[in-house]
């Protein structure tokens, strides 16, 4: 049997590889502390669990769901955007339900990018933007995120001929993997440039509800007129601890929402109705106190890990949002060398930065989605491995 040649263009999905590596080490009897994967360790918001139990008892939820998300789910998303960001959305034309935002991100690229087109993709970034662009036959144009530019792409540095061929610009703030945040002015500039060049601005808002020390991330749709050029992905996965439930929405530009809906309705049948009902309950429960508790927990962990890294002599910046720490590998190691070193010498799994793009080379990511005592132990083990390292 001969698989399609496009299968050869898919790089191995990093987290699958890391899962395998950890499984191998554990099979040898080693205790591995995984700081690798960004997946909340705390339980789902209780109101969603209760609502799901109730919804599942109703046989009406057992049938094919509404392809584009139920009217009630889309209304709940619109109401939340109004309350949280003071952004008005028409639930019929400007909201589409998704089976997780990863699905929507991938499909939007298929709806928009053609062979020969350019897609502007930050580097480092969540790998789906890059991989799906390649699969669709288009070309990712990397936008370097560096410590010097505060991990915000220099949009003014994109050459005119690249803008002319570009169809989409991907942004993700608060950012995975760097933990960086985007100021309002940056979004203003991005909207202006996308309008000038007729480019769809795609904002991945997976971490919009995360923020420390009082920081609250803006939505790109807060920029007046943003809906002319922008679509945003709002996921319930990370803020409500619902990664396994697969529920999200895309909101904003009505023609982008419609195109995504058309493509999706030929591929899937919408999120399970009972899960949509649970999501509605979560959104309508006034979740601000829940978000505040989660952010306080991640902030405590952030401070434990940052203090430990600084004590190791590692210059890690303190992020204002997300549950990630992004820092240079010690001793001038490559990220791959450092990842192997910490697995072998400390039994701690980190994520190598180059998994997110060439500009992630030499960087490592820690995810704070682990029980606090285990995080503390992991940091202690890393510190010991650093002390034991032969002087460079
Ligand atoms: C986790 C994550 C997603 C995926 O979220 P789902 O809604 O669970 O598919 C998308 N983008 C980024 C940047 C993420 O970190």
Q: Would you kindly provide a written description of the structure presented here, covering whatever features stand out?
A:
By secondary structure, the protein is α/β, with parallel strands linked by helices. The chain has two domains: 141 residues, Aspartate Aminotransferase, domain 1 (Alpha-Beta Complex), CATH 3.90.1150; 238 residues, Type I PLP-dependent aspartate aminotransferase-like (Major domain) (Aspartate Aminotransferase, domain 2, 3-Layer(aba) Sandwich). The protein is built from twelve helices and twelve strands. The strands form three sheets. A seven-stranded mixed beta sheet has the order 2-8-7-6-5-3-4, sandwiched between helices. The model has no long low-confidence stretch (mean pLDDT 95). The structure holds pyridoxal-5'-phosphate (PLP). This is Aminotransferase. It is an enzyme of class 2 (transferase). Pfam families: Aminotran_1_2. Its EC number is 2.6.1.-.
Tag the structure with descriptive keywords:
single chain; 392 residues; alpha/beta; Aspartate Aminotransferase, domain 1; Aspartate Aminotransferase, domain 2; 7-stranded mixed β-sheet; 3-stranded antiparallel β-sheet; 40% helix; 14% strand; globular; binds pyridoxal-5'-phosphate
